[in-house]
Amino acid sequence: MLATAVSSPPALQVDLHAHPRGVISFDAVDEHRIRIQSGHARGRCEGKRFTAASGDIDFLPAGSAARWEEDDASASIVLRFPPSLLQRTAEGLGFDGARIGLAPRHQLRDPQIEHLAWALRADREAGSPSGPLYAESVGLALAAHLVTQHRALQSISSRGLSKPQLRRVSDYVEAHLDETLTLSRLAEVAGISASHLKTLFKRSTGLPVHAYVVRRRVERARTLLLRRELPANQIALEAGFSHHSHMVRCLRRVLGAAAAPLLRGGR
Hints:
Number of strands: 13
Strand order of the largest sheet: 2-9-4-7-11
Order of helices and strands: EEEEEEEEEHEEHHEHEHHHHHH
Strand content: 15-25%
Radius of gyration: 24 Å
Helix content: 40-55%
CATH architecture of the largest domain: Sandwich
Largest sheet: 5 strands, antiparallel
CATH topology of the largest domain: Jelly Rolls
Number of helices: 10
Shape: elongated
CATH class of the largest domain: Mainly Beta
Number of domains: 2
């Protein structure tokens, strides 16, 4: 069945980078990234000279890339987190999480972000004695600060989920049909909040998430019933239904009269 249990927010990930002089590049990924400069560096970006000071902050929103050249060796801290963390935090603060995002920013100064980054670096260098709990708590504090101080409104696409998002969600559903699927887990797979997933998934497929999962389970049950290799009770479990009568109700609701010959042949 599709449950709506809420899971803990994904942990903030912390990367420590040492950059030799030369070209530095960040490829586009599905996560938001915040880069904090450690030490001074001079360089060029898009033909323009710049000087970076320790504590300078760059925002690289999900899907964005960056490339520049530095004349000096330097270091940086990169904080990575999925858009769903920002969106969930925004919803908890009373904002429309589906419209909250980050805008690209460069050489921003923000003492609070800098303080959190140094604290995370110290924890990482100490071997993370508190485990993921510390990073999760700092991640929530960072997300709340970004929402209240640096949020950027983004339009909700009328086209629904992107093709990669829809493929990830549908592939995950197919691979876990016989398990309990939660809306929060599917939202994590898509990299968005649960409320955003409900809206965009229906735009993409014409079905609510729950109805889509039921249809895929009905189709799996139909395939297995036609093979006549397993008892009906086992087929129900293989297709993700809680019991045989649950499968029968769903087959009749989705397939109508076409369900009758399938059910007569079940053992």
